[in-house]
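Quick one: structure for this chain?
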Amino acid sequence: MKLNDAIELGKQGRWEVAQVRLSPGNLNQWFVMLLDIEHKSFILANDDDQTIATDDINRLVELTRAIGLKKITVFL
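Got it. Here's what it folds into:
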């Protein structure tokens, strides 16, 4: 799910939860998985459809706020 699309859906109240998880391919990177109100899962991506992954979990917290979520679950 592209970030801009996720923000628009967040304005409509479509997101149930956000989960921050370790990347299976790189245990130093984190990514965001979104769950909508229909219980469908999406991975947050940039405009080039590349997964947004970073070693800075604070950046992902900022992104989830931009999407309209106030709570996240972090999986170690």
